[in-house]
Design a protein that fits this description.
heterotrimer, A mainly alpha, B mainly beta, C alpha/beta, A: mainly alpha, 6 helices, about 55% helix, C: alpha/beta, 2 domains, two-stranded parallel sheet, 11 helices, 4 strands, disordered N terminus, disordered C terminus
């Protein structure tokens, strides 16, 4: 029969703190169910099932793991947790993107200030071209 | 392959051996699932030698690599009231997570 | 992006109707770029590494896996090599597992195991811990494969989950679940279906879809594409994690 350990995970050097599951204002402002790709694409007659940034997001996740900034197993656990709670209503690619931003904020890899600043700059750039 | 010293690689088991999964304390990067702890199975494949995930995650490159194995379990040994006697499940372990079973 | 061109050239002109595009910049699009640029700014990875990964990620798909299966079906010696050393044999179809991305990390040396189905043994693959997947052969994993619903339920109720995919196996066929939790990656070599006698390798490859190589579908002479799968929430998830399982349904 399957064994089940009742012990909490043993503490180890560098063991990561628990993921902060509280919503962050910045990501909550971004999380607009009306603008997810599955709603957006049909409005414009685009048949591609995936948003154009999907592959780039995947590459970002893999590079973070390869560079050891954010190991895959840790990221996937966070994705699972956030996907079943805070971002459960969001479709897959957007859910993964929000979860990534969330875990990076939670781990202190980025700050909300950084992200706000950078998003403003990116948006200006994109709108100008 | 990461093993510099192939003589000392822990590799206790061969295909066909009966083994049981230990219930070692969880470290953060353990890849041994809860549902197999304490269950017995049979070595199906010897796969490769490598660092265990815990050591690799903490960059302990001087740590000793181990033999990895695919172990095959009967589903009825993993789950209560599993109705198909011949259904199986396979998953992979490093040497240290397994112990010998005499049936 | 899919292009849809209107090829009306009756008047000799070359006026193509523009391919439809999403004509607005969403916060999601902006967020993806911002996260990436910040990560590069903070030295978490380089722009070059990201470019290399993106290029590789755009190049992969299930065609390589389909070719592998079709070759194994038509060439017994190849099949024998594949089952003896799948990692090495992949090189014969141009897939190198030792340098899949060219960016070289500790985990890049993967090992491939091909799981051979027989008339009385059916394999199906899952990764309960994260969603490990044989990307060099199958491309990107589908969303349902990554979902907790699939990962937690397949190990415990494989026949029920397969039935939801439309695959019902009789009791005489044994089901073997492969939970890929370490560095091996797996691919199913399905049984060649009846009705494909004298087919060429190319014809055979066309019916070996991604779902057949994961094990949630069987190849059929009349099917060249996977069905679209809805994602359902798990009612009774199985704990594989180290924290306490959630109580109840």
């Amino acid at each position: 029969m399957s064994g089940e350990s009742g012990q909490p995970p043993a503490a180890a050097d560098g063991c990561q703190a628990d993921l902060d599951l509280a919503p962050t204002p910045l990501l909550e402002a971004i999380r607009n169910e009306d603008k997810t790709w599955d709603k957006l694409a049909p409005r414009y007659g685009v048949t591609n099932p995936d948003p154009p940034w999907k592959v780039s997001l995947y590459a970002t996740c893999e590079c973070l793991a390869a560079g050891e900034a954010l190991p895959s197993l840790e990221r996937r656990r966070a994705e699972d947790q956030l996907g079943e709670t805070l971002y459960s209503g969001t479709p897959a690619p957007e859910q993964q993107l929000l979860a990534l931003a969330h875990i990076m904020l939670s781990r202190g890899l980025l700050s909300e200030k950084d992200l706000t600043r950078c998003m403003n700059a990116v948006r200006l750039r994109l709108e100008a071209s | 392959m990461k093993s510099a010293n192939t003589e000392n690689v822990p590799a206790r088991f061969n295909v066909g051996d009966r083994v049981r999964v230990k219930d070692l304390p969880n470290l953060y990067y353990t890849r041994t699932q809860m549902y197999v702890r304490g269950v017995s199975g049979t070595i199906a494949v010897r796969t490769y030698e490598d660092l265990i995930p815990e050591d690799e995650a903490w960059n302990r490159d001087d740590a000793q690599p181990e033999q990895f194995y695919i172990v095959r379990f009967l589903q009825k040994d993993l789950w209560e009231e599993y109705p198909f006697d011949n259904d199986t499940l396979q998953t992979e372990f490093p040497d240290r997570w397994l112990e010998s079973v005499s049936d | 992006m899919q292009q849809s061109h209107n090829h009306d050239h009756d008047d000799g002109s070359h006026d193509h109707k523009a391919a439809p595009m999403v004509d607005e910049i969403t916060d999601f699009e902006v967020l993806e770029i911002a996260v990436r640029e910040l990560a590069i700014e903070k030295g978490l990875f380089t722009a070059e590494d990201h470019r290399n990964f993106t290029e590789w990620a755009e190049s992969i798909g299930p065609a390589a896996g389909s070719r592998l299966v079709a070759k194994a079906w038509t060439d017994p010696a190849f099949k024998a090599r594949l089952l003896a050393d799948a990692t090495q044999t992949c090189r014969e179809i141009g897939v190198d597992w030792t340098e899949p991305t060219g960016s070289g990390t500790a985990s890049d040396y993967m090992h491939l195991q091909v799981l051979e189905d027989t008339p009385t043994l059916h394999h199906v693959i899952v990764c309960t811990l994260c969603s490990c997947y044989p990307r060099p052969l199958l491309g990107h994993s589908p969303y349902w494969y990554r979902s907790p619903n699939y990962r937690r339920r397949l190990v415990r109720w494989p026949r029920q989950v397969l039935a939801e995919f439309g695959l019902i196996l009789p009791p005489e066929v044994d089901v073997r679940v492969e939970d890929s939790n370490q560095k091996c990656r797996f691919m199913v070599l399905p049984v060649r279906p009846a009705g494909t006698e004298n087919w060429t390798e190319e014809q055979l490859a066309e019916i070996v879809t991604r779902d057949c190589m994961i094990g949630v579908a069987l190849p059929r002479p009349d099917r060249k594409a996977d069905d679209v799968r809805p994602v359902h929430k798990a009612n009774r998830p199985v704990p594989s994690e180290h924290h306490q399982a959630e109580a109840g349904e």
